[in-house]
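seq/struct pair 1
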Amino acid sequence: MSAFLIIWRCLEIKELQINEEIRDKEVRLIDSEGNQVGVVSRNKALDMAFDARLDLVKIAPNSKPPVCRIMDYGKYRYDMMKREREAKKKQQIINIKEIRLTPNIEEHDLNTKANQAKKFLDNGDRVKVSVRFRGREMGHTDMGRQVLDRFTELISEHGVVDKKPKMEGRNMIMFLSANTEK
């Protein structure tokens, strides 16, 4: 292995110490087949890794003496990145969509907003429904609660209330999630 390759790897990857980064005098060595060699000096472990054309990787830095393994570090990193990508694919991302209402919204407008919320819920997204109060409307928060109750009735077969309506400043906010009992 060239010195350039070792230095490049050291700069690129900081999670595990490899090759020349390992500063311990003695290490517990595991060879490339997974067999324990025992406690050997760092230089002997590096020589064994160099002879096998592989890397010496410190896998358990907190043990006494630290455990090092002879492996192809590039392949190891590639496999780890591949596993992370697979895990990300299986991960389900839930977005939060917001719908804004007013306390004196008309019935048709409320139905339109409810239809949009149904689409969001059918896609698996959570919906944040907020009623904004302006000026003197702050004295009639009960009207906003009635609007949210009507909205909940309209989307009841598509979603359920996660968080009940609550005042936050000038807004009354409620969260909905998809109905799992379909």
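seq/struct pair 2
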Amino acid sequence: MILLEFCARHARWLLVAGLVAGVVLPQAADRMRGTLPGLVALLLFLAALRIGPRLALGAVADLRATALVVALWQVVLPLGLLGGFALFGALGSPAALALGLMLAAPPLAGSPNLTMLVGGDPAPTLRLLVLGTALLPLTALPVFHMLPALGDPAVVTASVLRLLVTIALATAAAFALRLSLLKAPGQTAMRRIDGCSALVMTVMVLGLMSEVGPALTQDPARLAVWLALACAANLGPQLVVALSLRRAPDRSALPALAITSGNRNIALFLVALPPEITAPLLLFIGCYQVPMYLTPLLMTPLYRALR
């Protein structure tokens, strides 16, 4: 319990330590790859456990607003970006594939935890995560139409449905625990749940950074290009959304909206797409972890000031 409370107090620096370990310990990163699906489910369980069913479900009006945000995040943004690539004749480039799939993906499974780390309300983030994943088979179709090299969308849809089942089971288990044994958790219990979340996210990053270490020694220039692209793709939307909402009457959902705009579960598509298509994405996904895990450290002052 003392360890968990320590992790909660120093969560931002634990994430940085995970990034460093993912680069300098490539063998450990390779070993962690196989545990990623289980860690994603555990992370979602912890986020749902902390939030509870009442805050997560929200009102009907919240769900309608959530659906509108999902349509904007997962349909309008990727189609607009791919349209820009098409104008310049670069729709078949690796950058178009990486950014198109990133924006078509639902919010990261750990986005509720990131929202909590920046001091925001994680309930809107969890609603965006669940609904965005549920609607992914529908929202991804127009994006796949613009990227025909992805192959049969039915294969991707099957993997999305498997992920949706995982999310449903993890959330249901957490809510059942909140409704039975953990009806009114105190501050100490909440800190321990936060510590568990930080620890799981730190371990997860090892498996996601497996391509970065070799690229750092073998092709640093290529690594620098993909890292710059990943930082722009992650932090850019966060800044645009946060600054756009800075004058909104109610800014309580600002961190949730900004974080989900830039932190997407692109790794979801790796389980369904053929290796010859996903090979150019592996280094991008590894670089993408850097701004993702630095979000609590870099963006907390901005979100607090704007909120």
